Amino acid sequence: MRSPTPARLALALVAALAAAALLGGAAAATEEAYVTLLYGDEFVLGVRVLGKSIRDTGTRRDLVVLVSDGVSDYSRKLLQADGWIVSHITLLANPNQVRPKRFWGVYTKLKIFNMTSYRKVVFLDADTVVVKSIEDLFKCGKFCGNLKHSERMNSGVMVVEPSETVFKDMMRQIDTLPSYTGGDQGFLNSYYADFANSHVYEPDKPYTPEPETQRLSTLYNADVGLYMLANKWMVDEKELRVIHYTLGPLKPWDWWTAWLVKPVGVWQDVRQTLEESLPGTGGGRSPHDQLVVKVLFILPVLLLSFGYYQSCFQFSNGMHSKLPSYFGALTVLACFMSAGVSFAFAFAIIPKQIMPWTGLLLMFEWTFVSFFLLFGSYLRFVYRWGSLDANHVGHSRFDSSENHMVTGRHHNMSDCDIDATFYWTGMAIIAIVTVLLPTLLGVTALFAKLGLMVAGGVVLASFMTYASEHIAISAFYKGQRDRNVSRSRSICFLF
């Protein structure tokens, strides 16, 4: 039997490599990788921006995202189109009974210690963004992390040398080691109990032999929460490597966060450069959200075409009955309830991950329209209340003046337009100025922004109290005057 020729051996080797590539599409292409974790679709945009920020540094290492069953097929395809290696994993149950509900599967992060197909991995949370190359982290020790909050390690940015032995040891102790957070971070602090005493990692000064653990400087895990306390970074901003958005519900992909937290602008800048990996996804957009936004911009116009307040406002001329003593309090209550419901409703229906300016404009539009319709409904009730009151008071006092009222109607229409426009427009302008004043003045400190908004809110509340009472009084007296006048002749559009 003849031995195979070199040519045949080469062909067999190529065929074997091709088969391996087909069977293991998510196999490691390099010995080192950047890794993140994704539990559901809510953080997909964060992973996209993180990947773009890493690629912009010129890295050639793998980008791996570990995804659970909660991630949709569309999101997986989108991340693959972005250049991520998508690897499916099952969640590790949290052994802690006392923990936040959202921490159910966070122990899954420990699986990065078992990624033995790589020599070393750099893990980054989905709410981080890389602003400068962090390739030097692959020179760090077997386990590297950053200290936060005194002597506690933060697991948002870590360097790990995967080891099946270490991973099995963690699984053996998972039910016994305490976790001060009720999640993976607390467990890792217990597992690496002496981590606070580790040497600080210095890329240009390697240790021999390589230490088991090393501490990363704040440059590699700059906490936005600490930035907001002093309104500045505690390190040289030009040397920052990774920004970590740790402000709980204030995630950088939520449109309102950009108006409160200055460093979110860095994240938004990266977002706007995202390629259109799948149709309609350029700039971090979502095809579904884009359709919703178009509907939300158009729908208020249609609602306003049907929801008007049929009144021309003018004050009492002495012919009318006395208003109930509780009328003012009832009106102010209705006004503020309408404003609160309008704000909450607008906030609830606007997609969270749209662009900041789009979100703000929709917020203004829907809050104003909802308030106009809700408080307008109360004013229509007051108008009818005035009509019923006039019937009880009697018709004789009004009959003698009926011709005079009809004769002067065109003049009154002009007066009512001015009064109504002043009150409605005044409330809208003060509300807009209250929100935008910190931006217009260039204020970046969170607490200073909130202080200005509170001050503006006090002014707005005072004007709303004054305006609502006067508008309601006009509506009541208008109902008394118009009890015998055709409804079609008393429509006053306020927009």
UniProtKB/TrEMBL annotation:
UniProt keywords, alphabetically: Glycosyltransferase, Manganese, Membrane, Signal, Transferase, Transmembrane, Transmembrane helix
Molecular function via GO: glycosyltransferase activity
UniProt-listed Enzyme Commission number(s): 2.4.1.-
Residues of the signal peptide: 1-28
Membrane-crossing residue ranges in chain numbering: 291-309, 330-351, 357-379, 422-448, 454-477
A family per Pfam: Glyco_transf_8
Family according to the record: Belongs to the glycosyltransferase 8 family.
Record protein name field: Hexosyltransferase
Protein's organism: Oryza rufipogon
